[in-house]
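HUMAN:
Sorry, I am quite new to this. Are you able to go through these amino acid letters and fold codes? The numbers rather puzzle me.
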Amino acid sequence: MEQGGEKWVVGGTLEIKEGASVTGLTSTAAPASEAALGGVKAAAKEETDTVPVKIGEDAILYVQTYPIVPEIPVAANQADSTATDVTALVTDFNALLAKLKAAGLMAADEE
């Protein structure tokens, strides 16, 4: 170990005991790169990934995943209406309502 006012080199293990503190460090760590260690270096996460973090006695803390949002169903296509009278328009509209109910986007009729 070499030490002095300008430089301190540790050639073995540096152990910081419980309750000790380190002062004088910058508040933000430089990002890690391929050539140098830094604050945090991890693979890019996928949408469904959680990120393991080494912490605590078990060495891993899993970040909680976001709740899964259910997929919104898609109703069957309803062709544009070409109705020329009210009766035909009611038929087209009822067909649209039936498709919305079948897809689960609208409550079924009460019986």
User: Anything to note?
Assistant: The first helix runs from residue 86 to 102.
